[in-house]
Amino acid sequence: MTDNTWLNRWDERYSSEEFAYGTEPNNYLREMLTQLTPGKILFPAEGEGRNAVFAATQGWEVSAFDISANGRNKALQLAEQLGTTIDYQVGELSALNYQEQQFDAIALIYAHFPGDIKSSIHQMLNQYLRKGGFIIFEAFSKSHLEYIAKNEKVGGPKDIESLFSIEEIKADFPDYDSIELTETEIELNEGLFHNGTGSVIRFVGQKTI
């Protein structure tokens, strides 16, 4: 069940005319998608749609979801501006009607779920990816708390349970060939809320079973 505080937080963040994280795609996502053959891709916790809409402009058949209706509205607005379309649902993953092995790729870009449900969501998503499909993942690491302490403008969750470790990613996605799995320091310049130096986990994995 979605906590109303959590829902209200994201609806409020996406309520202004300006895009919270900008309209340009995440750099890592852009780089990884150009190396894959377009197919069906899912964007969980997709917010205002910058990454999903970019994928659609590159020939992908895009599905996305988030708990925020405000996020969806802005994503569809952005898609229209760029002359493309995406399928965007609002709701919790367990209530949505995705099918087993429906997708060729799943992109988790700063998809920070509450700590008590994040692993179960990853395991659910795993069912929707076909054998041979790809996970593309970038999100803040547990080390990132030190970076927030120095510069709040870099953004990201302030509770360690919502942040990620390499060990957690290995545990959540065990049936994958790891193409890349690393913790690294990067410079972020994404809209209003991701600005400065941060620590992230990056993962690209190909599903083996």
Describe this structure in words.
It comes from Chryseobacterium sediminis. One of its GO terms (molecular function) is methyltransferase activity. Keywords: Methyltransferase, Transferase. Pfam families: Methyltransf_25. Residues 46-133 form the Methyltransferase domain. Helix content is 30%, strand content 30%. It is α/β, with parallel strands linked by helices and 209 residues long. The protein has a 7-stranded mixed beta sheet, with helices on both faces. The two termini are 30 Å apart. The model has no long low-confidence stretch (mean pLDDT 95).
Write the topology of this structure.
Blueprint: H1 4-13, H2 27-33, E1 40-43, H3 50-57, E2 61-66, H4 69-81, E3 87-90, E4 103-109, H5 118-128, E5 129-140, H6 144-150, H7 166-172, E6 176-190, E7 194-207
Parallel strand pairs: 1-2, 1-4, 2-3, 4-5
Antiparallel strand pairs: 5-7, 6-7
Short description:
Residues 46-133 form the Methyltransferase domain. It contains seven helices and seven strands; from the N terminus they run ααβαβαββαβααββ.
Going across the biggest sheet, name each strand in turn. 3-2-1-4-5-7-6
Specify the helix fraction band. Answer: 25-40%
Total DSSP helices = 7
Radius of gyration: 16 Å
Instruction: Please summarize the sheet with the most strands.
Output: 7 strands, mixed
- Unreliable parts: none
Q: What share of the residues does DSSP label as strand, in percent?
A: 25-35%
Distance between the termini: 30 Å
